[in-house]
Amino acid sequence: MGLILAVLALAAGWRLYGWPGIAMAVSLLVFWLLLQFSQSLRVMQNAGRSPVGLVPSAVMLNARLKPGMTLLDIVQVSKALGRQVSAEPEVWAWADEGGAVVTATMKRAKLESWHLTRPETPAGAEDSGTGPASP
């Protein structure tokens, strides 16, 4: 898609203004590439501040995922680099402190599917609601 837009910008620049139009189109393309590079660096810098594969809440990450997201989009949402589970198919995982894990499967560099796995709670550890209410 980006390549098609670049060719259209160059063609429109040439058609409307000749060589100055080509120079303007090239300037716009370089500016767009610098913006993309800057965004990628910012996302990676933010993700580099947290441990690999650790997110504050796997449930919230699960709720924010959408089919078709790129890995860069997921890293931006999770604010952490994922832990690669397998290379083919490309599977990444993020976990939280409570043991919940989100596993994402990528196909052709896009999010195809994901699954949230929560830790099992011991039988006696659940709140039965029969005890006194806390103030």
Can you offer a commentary on this structure?
The protein is of the alpha+beta class and about 140 residues long. The chain has two domains: about 1-45; about 50-115, Beta-lactamase Inhibitory Protein, Chain:B, domain 1 (2-Layer Sandwich), CATH 3.30.1450. The protein is built from four helices and four strands; from the N terminus they run ααααββββ. It has helices spanning about 1-15, 20-45, 60-65, 70-80; strands at about 85, 90-95, 100-105, 110-115. Strands 1-2-3-4 form a four-stranded antiparallel β-sheet, with helices on one face. It is elongated, with a radius of gyration of 23 Å. Residues about 130-135 have low confidence and may be disordered.
Query: What is the general shape?
Result: elongated
Uncertain spans, ≥5 residues at pLDDT below 50?
128-134
Q: Write down the Rg.
A: 23 Å
Count of helix runs: 4
Strand tally, please? 4
Distance between the termini: 59 Å
Can you tell me the CATH topology of the largest domain? Answer: Beta-lactamase Inhibitory Protein, Chain:B, domain 1
Summing up helix and strand content along with how strands pair, one would put the structural category as alpha+beta
Largest sheet: 4 strands, antiparallel
Oligomeric state of the chains present here:
single chain
